[in-house]
Amino acid sequence: MSKKLLALVGSPRKGGNTDTLVDEAVYVFYKAGGEAEKIYLNSVHIKPCQGCFACMENDGLDSVCIQQDDMMGIYQKMFEADFVLWATPIYMWSPTAQMKLYLDRLFPLGDYQNTRWRCALNGTPVGIIIVYAENDPLHSGVFQTRDILKVVAEASGGNTAFVIHSTVGEKGKTRQNVDLIQKVQEAVGKVVQGLD
Ligand SMILES: Cc1cc2nc3c(=O)[nH]c(=O)nc-3n(C[C@H](O)[C@H](O)[C@H](O)COP(=O)(O)O)c2cc1C
């Protein structure tokens, strides 16, 4: 399989719960003979959207967005990917700020645009992984976090392939959560099968 996975990690903690689950997705992709790239959103330079609306003018901008930062490379990689994974912990009942900066910069891809970048994810499957500490999902913020990620994926032309969410323990504990790891492996395995 010569397919590409692009994983965007919203947690600042390398080796944390989100990262562990992303590694499982990457492992499934590698095992199937695919390529995978993981980007820590905390380690790249993504400026906040400035609300200039330049992306809405005419047919849109050659570079998707007027701000020349690390999003330029990320847009390119997203357009080349066969599967995009968005993984974030919940911070304050929301996706992390790192993830939100990235999501805002997908504004040029929205289905409300009339430019060449409208819905540019073009049917690419998007997997969503959300982790949180609260035992009761009702109090964790998972529902709004899921809705935000899903609506942005779909407005950008992506297809939500799966949403996996779980309460998790402290850093490193997810490595021992066999059921959760299996869930991720199975969900990504299904995506891989669909790409063949
Ligand atoms: C600033 C901050 C805010 C948080 N807010 C929430 C929250 O609203 N709901 C929740 O269930 N967990 C919350 N958590 C817990 C994290 O989601 C949890 O620690 C998660 O495992 C972190 O993922 P990571 O290991 O991938 O970094 C918060 C943690 C931090 C540091």
Characterise this structure.
With 196 residues, the protein is of the alpha/beta class. It has a single domain, classed as Rossmann fold (3-Layer(aba) Sandwich), CATH 3.40.50.360. Helices cover 35% and strands 20% of the residues. Strands 1, 2, 3, 4, 5 and 6 form a six-stranded mixed beta sheet that branches. Helix 1 links the parallel strand 1 and strand 2. Helix 1 packs across helix 6. Bound molecules: flavin mononucleotide. The site of flavin mononucleotide has 19 residues, from helix 1, strand 3 and strand 5.
Question: What does the secondary structure layout of this molecule look like, with pairings?
Answer:
Elements lengths: L3 E6 L7 H15 L3 E6 L30 H10 L2 E9 L2 E2 L1 H8 L20 E8 L4 H4 L1 H14 L3 E9 L10 H18 L1
Parallel strand pairs: 1-2, 1-3, 3-5, 5-6
Antiparallel strand pairs: 3-4
Bound molecules: flavin mononucleotide.
